[in-house]
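Progress note, sequence design subtask.
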């Protein structure tokens, strides 16, 4: 029996990635760290309630049925979203606590990862793949 893999249309994923990049850049340019809270809250909502308002809004602009777009694996997107939520949260904490190094380190990481993903290489996918390989190799050694 085959189980159907849950997917997300690529344009929705790209919209979320651009939203993260632009929010971080806007934070750097304006100095208003509260801007980081917007993609952070959207990401947390996506992780815990499976409702990302950025993606939901972008869905209104799809010209084709969602199934007609290149699919992105839902579980992978959740993993990537978890990484971005952690980075955005640590970046926001850095700004609020006036820990500039922490703020810039994590906002640079999340913006770079999102932008590189837009360009075609998913850092989160690479990390998840390597982790799964590690778990698999460890299970082979133990058996």
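Output:
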């Amino acid at each position: 029996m085959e189980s159907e893999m849950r997917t997300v249309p690529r344009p929705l994923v790209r919209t979320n990635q651009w939203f993260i990049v632009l929010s971080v850049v806007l934070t750097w340019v304006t100095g208003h760290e509260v801007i980081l809270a917007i993609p952070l809250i959207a990401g947390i909502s996506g992780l815990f309630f499976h409702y990302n308002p950025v993606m939901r809004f972008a869905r209104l602009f799809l010209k084709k049925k969602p199934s007609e777009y290149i699919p992105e694996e839902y579980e992978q997107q959740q993993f990537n979203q978890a990484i971005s939520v952690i980075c955005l949260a640590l970046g926001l904490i850095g700004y609020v606590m006036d820990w500039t190094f922490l703020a810039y380190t994590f906002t640079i990481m999340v913006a770079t990862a999102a932008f590189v993903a837009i360009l075609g290489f998913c850092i989160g996918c690479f990390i998840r793949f390597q982790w799964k390989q590690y778990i698999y190799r460890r299970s082979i050694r133990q058996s």
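Residues 26 and 32 are 8 Å apart (CA to CA). Work on this subtask will continue into the next period as scheduled.
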